[in-house]
């Protein structure tokens, strides 16, 4: 039986927020679309899960005030947001191992470290203001900034270890999820400029502001409903993308029927003929598709120098938010701890809009520390993580009713988190080409966004941008 063949104006590869936003905006402009998705769900790196009866957001979840395009789309889809819980004191663990309860927006460190941190934040803000998030490679010192790792640059700025480690946490552990020696100063400046300033990244009340009632995946689910089931094909990874076919439809996307059991069905594939294609997956997955003819050498080189980081998102659900009994917000920072960040992630019931009685903590383990966790058995890993959380927020943290680890590095169709960044020298060398179409092929994902880089907002912006470009051509 031959694979089903359909014809559309545009074929979109990837049903995450970028691909679905592009598809929806193209439909609104009067164009036909087909979305091909390898997974058996929509949402990409956003995913709502029910684990042992507890609702968790396995992937991306927060909206900050600068993420205006995402906020507008949430409103357009009729979704509701709620504020992250932040009442009470926070917890900080210093390099000496002291666990300190504090309030306000300044870590409880000595005066010299406070002064150094404020100086470094000011310096990063100054440098960030000079960088255009849409084109960081145009900075007059871009090549210089891209040739030095963020770690080495920080060493040239201060010999205060605690200040240096804390500043690094906000970029390396919290955002790029790579060791600070693995990315450049220019890449760090892109990260902060994409959020408006470095000060925004160090302010958890800004960067982790609101959540979508019912989970961030509802954005993709809402878009998918508007696009229609007839235009979205799940469980079909695109294996071949032909882009120089004869006739009015030069694109031919060939997708394989891939069952949830991991078994391919050779008789259930789909072929989509189209005028244009949008690759709406992260750059590390471009090579999963065979392009016929092949892409040019610049594309091949560029994609090999973009990689995702690694982070474990820890979900621990308790019968009540016990930390609030002690006047704690649930927010914890500890740059040298196994779990470097913790936040109150208690959910609201989508049906009633009321906060759940159970309490949820979310924590993050980044880069090399995450590597270490996967050398342990499942039970050893759980014990180590909960012990690290308990050291910060109390012994009751050791006894969750539900415990789950989001391991995006093991996801076949993601292979890392949160998003891609370049290795040293890569951003200034290839960044200017990452949006360039190749014939009828366009690119859209949060990994190559300017504003909203690495966030759902960036995915939405990229989807809208490419949809506008193609609408003008169709």
- End-to-end distance: 33 Å
Radius of gyration: 22 Å
Query: What can be said about the biggest beta sheet?
Result: 8 strands, mixed
Instruction: Give the name of the CATH superfamily of the domain at 4-46 and 216-295 and 438-473.
Output: FAD/NAD(P)-binding domain
From the spread of the alpha carbons, the general shape counts as: globular
> What is the annotated CATH architecture of the domain at 4-46 and 216-295 and 438-473?
3-Layer(bba) Sandwich
CATH topology of the domain at 4-46 and 216-295 and 438-473: FAD/NAD(P)-binding domain
Name the CATH class of the domain at 4-46 and 216-295 and 438-473: Alpha Beta
Low-confidence stretches: none
Mean pLDDT: 97
Counting helices, strands and paired strands, the structural category is: alpha/beta
Q: What's the helical proportion of residues? A: 25-40%
